[in-house]
């Protein structure tokens, strides 16, 4: 393998730049030429491709977002789009790809390989931590800490005013951010998509707290919770709880995607970037590089796409015990 | 004056604890007994009052919220409520009050003085910075920095995806937080209640940016903007702009009220707490202590309540120049 | 087991409060009475012991330091001291202990058990991450992020002035903080006690960088490095490098011990606190609770004390590759 | 004025990039061509000069350091050096300069004007806040908050171990950082170069605290204190205090120069950058732009160089009262 390219695709996540840096520096270290593709598959189709060197990635390890920009591409879902993309890669002589993104990105890469034989190694870049094949994904630790900082701030106000706060965090299909930020934030209840928390149970917990004169509470709700988003859940509670509780709702929103990556995310991203390049060198294809139990592993895209990543139900048990 | 009491009232703001600490320590320094009243006027009515010492305020200067808790009181708006409050203060022998809060609090204190002759010196505690009689209010600098951190994070995502973000910050009647966080965050446009920004102007600015291939933009909207909240403004823009811009909306919400106070807020709060006690000692009553041009000043409550605090329109001019 | 006590001992670490909270809440959950002992073994000897409830640990999960205070105890190293300690525990009817600390603490607990039969489960509380029997210790993730924030700030200055900075981080016998903060901070070289980095190699790397016109560099040095502390290493380099490099030294010092714990540390501390109480309930004694590969494990004190915790040499290889 | 140039000189300070951005954008707004000079006067002599546009300063407002790099220049202190610098400026047709730095920079600019008639407007960029002619300098608010964060962390440890900490902050000739970070950090004593704090007074305060069972203390020492640096002061105290106090020393060092600028510093820097360009347009020369009582003012370099900036002694009085 003499020439490879790297791109970011799907939602951006803190640590993507650290991963790009590791891909570029590792390639340089092994004497491989490395190219950057801007705006994901869109840039691949448009030929928005440039050669990168060590200097290209100086002083980016600490930056949120992605210097290669990211996008979702409808055109790459068409045969014509992929044909153009292949021609562009041919033009530059690119023989392998590192794709930093999630399952949408990996699905595209699989089809592309079947059609044109260009191998891709994926790196899991998403704040949701919902990818099978790795303990953690790039951006997840930062997102949890961002959510936690927000919860800490809100608790100041909740305590000062004896309020109950419903805080909605990201996680469409996954309760990872909710559970970790909830435990770390000392939440009384955490509601996640994977496990139903009945409204009656929430009402009961609030009433018990009230009777113990626990006057303020934090309830963390994942955006994909079965009972609805935080505002909907709060409405249901308000209509059921008979005591005079001051209930507020806040949705953390897009701040969870950005920010300076934590040490954990930078190191994870660096290891995965290095592992992705070494994976390509060792003829891996259609696999995602991950870290499980502190070891680099390569998992086929078909598994990362097909298999669910269960949450640790012990964690939900812990929320209950610690809010005693 | 031998015995005074301190309380916080209205919305909590970072730095209130630093102010409480300064009130307590200053009173101790001058040999005055000092009491804390919990939950504002509600606690005054209920007699939720306790003696404070230097130890009571150890290690609180860095904490958000208020250790005395805060509340809005309907009962204090009744004659019966105030009668009860007076009786409680009598019981403890309290001769003067320091009220940390805003105009609602000061209005109550004025009526209370007219009826019972207990003097109050107010300290401006509100993140909105909308009080006449002081350059800055306690909590404002922290709120601006909290909003700014959020804007910084969102810009990472905006840049990575070439998006336009409408970010709603707090400020029902006041654009202070919007303007300062907008300038500091490099916003292209800032919309405030005090000055109408026509939708057509926003559309024009976005189009011009688009033509200069400025692909991402941040628009900060104060919650009290005349054109509506951020979601409403964004809707209007979407229907008018003909180009294919990816527009997102986020509302920062309650995180702006909490958090560790900045150096500025802690120092301001400390100076005002000291100034409030010295004000009571010098027979000030029905006044708010403030800092104007770095000097302590006392402004009658009737002026802080009656007079508007204009924003600096030079700042709006600066937004325009700096987004060139 | 009806009554247990918890204490912190040795150097404080962020997350100790989260661990205390988990111990207290878990004990309450299982109907066990729980006591807090202040200032470690000193307080045990002095009888500085009080009953704790859910309220005692409200709103402490986010605080650095330890509400139970910590100390090293010479008196507990004497037979008389331990005799007094035992009498105090007898007085309160305490049947088991949770000790949050390091190997010094665990050694004391082992002797104490041999003499008086009071079982202890330990929880690893130290920023150094140098304890065998757990992947990570309480406080380590926070310390790494604190060091990293400092490195980020210093890089701003290093870049602006084309300087080489030697940054000394904590870790007397262990390079964990140095390696993780060094990789995450994009350091060109990391010097740790476990592996000798010859001065000549550092000089060579700096010269190579200079020749590639890489004008600024960060070198992270663990305080226990064989070549000396950061100032000593910098002196050796200065005298050997012939080119005109502007070399500066900074020692991060005590800031690394404090601060708001990260999400990771709060969750780790919570799990370990819960695991410690459940360990005592299941008749564990003279063991440290740890987490290895995301599972709770109990390791005998004799092993945590005797066995070294090796650093991952792959990480040192990564530093070299990524500074290409 | 058709063409101007901007440069940074002396020690870097957070907010310098925000100032550069404002200079560039304001010049563009008024139709003036603007150039950046790298590495201060050194780059001026070497002709390391390039044209800047709005894009050159995109996304830098939040970055510490300076994208134009900074240096102290010995060559500019020679007649030959300045001759070369003039020739370079001639080559580019540059008619006016904006210099972001301190008194060393302004002295050079004054001599340069006398010799070659190129006018300079200075902007005060230094974390020390020791410049006459402005209430605050660029970088000062960030440095104070950085020192404060460190003090907050150290207090966690001080409290947990009942220790006395001597913390040295920057400020060779100026106690500004020490006083503000000391008050905000709740320090018991602040030692500054401007006012002698006798060792005996420090000893007395520590003993009194000890007698009131105030077991931990923070003493902030400016690096330029007359009694010596923090380590020296601590030594003197140790030998004089007879009680068994655990005394530690930490020097914050270079972290105080870097970091993401606060809202205050970004706004101040933006206003000063705008004011500097408008100053040149209005034929100002050999002046520093500053903000006093929230108004833009221009002060002759000869005054900023000659006149001292006194600290507010009321602040020292406040330290004493608040540590009661």
Automatic annotation (TrEMBL), chains A, B, C, D:
<feature type="binding site">
    <location>
        <position position="248"/>
    </location>
    <ligand>
        <name>substrate</name>
    </ligand>
</feature>
<dbReference type="InterPro" id="IPR022953">
    <property type="entry name" value="ATP_PFK"/>
</dbReference>
<feature type="binding site" description="in other chain">
    <location>
        <position position="155"/>
    </location>
    <ligand>
        <name>ADP</name>
    </ligand>
</feature>
<dbReference type="GO" id="GO:0005524">
    <property type="term" value="F:ATP binding"/>
</dbReference>
<keyword id="KW-0479">Metal-binding</keyword>
<feature type="binding site">
    <location>
        <begin position="72"/>
        <end position="73"/>
    </location>
    <ligand>
        <name>ATP</name>
    </ligand>
</feature>
<dbReference type="InterPro" id="IPR012003">
    <property type="entry name" value="ATP_PFK_prok-type"/>
</dbReference>
<dbReference type="GO" id="GO:0030388">
    <property type="term" value="P:fructose 1,6-bisphosphate metabolic process"/>
</dbReference>
<dbReference type="Pfam" id="PF00365">
    <property type="entry name" value="PFK"/>
</dbReference>
<keyword id="KW-0067">ATP-binding</keyword>
<dbReference type="InterPro" id="IPR000023">
    <property type="entry name" value="Phosphofructokinase_dom"/>
</dbReference>
<dbReference type="GO" id="GO:0070095">
    <property type="term" value="F:fructose-6-phosphate binding"/>
</dbReference>
<keyword id="KW-0547">Nucleotide-binding</keyword>
<feature type="binding site">
    <location>
        <position position="103"/>
    </location>
    <ligand>
        <name>Mg(2+)</name>
    </ligand>
</feature>
<comment type="subunit">
    <text>Homotetramer.</text>
</comment>
<feature type="binding site" description="in other chain">
    <location>
        <begin position="126"/>
        <end position="128"/>
    </location>
    <ligand>
        <name>substrate</name>
    </ligand>
</feature>
<comment type="similarity">
    <text>Belongs to the phosphofructokinase type A (PFKA) family. ATP-dependent PFK group I subfamily. Prokaryotic clade 'B1' sub-subfamily.</text>
</comment>
<feature type="binding site" description="in other chain">
    <location>
        <position position="223"/>
    </location>
    <ligand>
        <name>substrate</name>
    </ligand>
</feature>
<keyword id="KW-0418">Kinase</keyword>
<keyword id="KW-0963">Cytoplasm</keyword>
<keyword id="KW-0460">Magnesium</keyword>
<feature type="active site" description="Proton acceptor">
    <location>
        <position position="128"/>
    </location>
</feature>
<feature type="binding site">
    <location>
        <begin position="21"/>
        <end position="25"/>
    </location>
    <ligand>
        <name>ADP</name>
    </ligand>
</feature>
<keyword id="KW-0808">Transferase</keyword>
<dbReference type="GO" id="GO:0005945">
    <property type="term" value="C:6-phosphofructokinase complex"/>
</dbReference>
<dbReference type="GO" id="GO:0046872">
    <property type="term" value="F:metal ion binding"/>
</dbReference>
<feature type="binding site">
    <location>
        <position position="163"/>
    </location>
    <ligand>
        <name>substrate</name>
    </ligand>
</feature>
<feature type="binding site" description="in other chain">
    <location>
        <begin position="214"/>
        <end position="216"/>
    </location>
    <ligand>
        <name>ADP</name>
    </ligand>
</feature>
<comment type="pathway">
    <text>Carbohydrate degradation; glycolysis; D-glyceraldehyde 3-phosphate and glycerone phosphate from D-glucose: step 3/4.</text>
</comment>
<dbReference type="GO" id="GO:0042802">
    <property type="term" value="F:identical protein binding"/>
</dbReference>
<feature type="binding site">
    <location>
        <begin position="102"/>
        <end position="105"/>
    </location>
    <ligand>
        <name>ATP</name>
    </ligand>
</feature>
<feature type="domain" description="Phosphofructokinase">
    <location>
        <begin position="3"/>
        <end position="279"/>
    </location>
</feature>
<keyword id="KW-0324">Glycolysis</keyword>
<dbReference type="GO" id="GO:0016208">
    <property type="term" value="F:AMP binding"/>
</dbReference>
<dbReference type="InterPro" id="IPR012828">
    <property type="entry name" value="PFKA_ATP_prok"/>
</dbReference>
<dbReference type="InterPro" id="IPR015912">
    <property type="entry name" value="Phosphofructokinase_CS"/>
</dbReference>
<feature type="binding site" description="in other chain">
    <location>
        <begin position="170"/>
        <end position="172"/>
    </location>
    <ligand>
        <name>substrate</name>
    </ligand>
</feature>
<dbReference type="InterPro" id="IPR035966">
    <property type="entry name" value="PKF_sf"/>
</dbReference>
<protein>
    <recommendedName>
        <fullName>ATP-dependent 6-phosphofructokinase</fullName>
        <ecNumber>2.7.1.11</ecNumber>
    </recommendedName>
</protein>
<feature type="binding site" description="in other chain">
    <location>
        <begin position="254"/>
        <end position="257"/>
    </location>
    <ligand>
        <name>substrate</name>
    </ligand>
</feature>
<dbReference type="GO" id="GO:0061621">
    <property type="term" value="P:canonical glycolysis"/>
</dbReference>
<dbReference type="GO" id="GO:0006002">
    <property type="term" value="P:fructose 6-phosphate metabolic process"/>
</dbReference>
């Amino acid at each position: 393998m003499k020439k490879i390219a790297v791109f970011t695709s799907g939602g951006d996540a803190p640590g993507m730049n650290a991963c790009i840096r590791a891909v570029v520096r590792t390639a340089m270290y092994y004497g491989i030429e490395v190219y950057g593709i801007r705006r994901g598959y869109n840039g691949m189709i448009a030929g928005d491709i440039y050669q990168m060197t060590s200097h290209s990635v100086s002083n980016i390890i600490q930056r949120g977002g992605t210097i290669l920009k990211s996008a979702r591409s409808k055109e790459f879902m068409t045969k014509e789009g992929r044909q153009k993309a292949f021609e562009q890669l041919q033009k530059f002589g690119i023989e392998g790809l590192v794709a930093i993104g999630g399952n949408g990105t990996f699905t595209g890469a699989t089809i592309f390989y079947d059609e044109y034989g260009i191998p891709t190694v994926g790196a899991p870049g998403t704040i949701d931590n919902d990818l099978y094949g790795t303990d953690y994904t790039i951006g997840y630790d930062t997102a949890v800490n961002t959510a936690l900082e927000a919860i800490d701030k809100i608790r100041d106000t909740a305590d000062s005013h004896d309020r109950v706060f419903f805080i909605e965090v990201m996680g469409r299909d996954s309760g990872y951010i909710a559970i970790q930020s909830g435990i770390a934030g000392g939440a009384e209840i955490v509601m996640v998509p994977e496990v139903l928390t009945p409204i009656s149970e929430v009402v009961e917990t609030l009433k018990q707290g009230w009777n113990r004169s626990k006057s303020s509470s934090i309830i963390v709700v994942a955006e994909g919770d079965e009972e609805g988003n935080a505002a909907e859940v709060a409405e249901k509670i308000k209509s059921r709880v008979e005591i005079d509780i001051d209930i507020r709702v806040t949705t953390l929103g897009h701040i969870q995607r950005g920010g300076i990556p934590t040490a954990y995310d930078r190191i994870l991203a660096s290891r995965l970037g290095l592992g992705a390049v070494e994976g390509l060198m060792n003829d891996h294809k259609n696999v995602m590089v991950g870290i499980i139990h502190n070891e680099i592993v390569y998992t086929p895209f078909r598994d990362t796409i097909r298999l669910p990543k269960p949450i640790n139900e012990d964690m939900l048990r812990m929320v209950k015990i610690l809010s005693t």
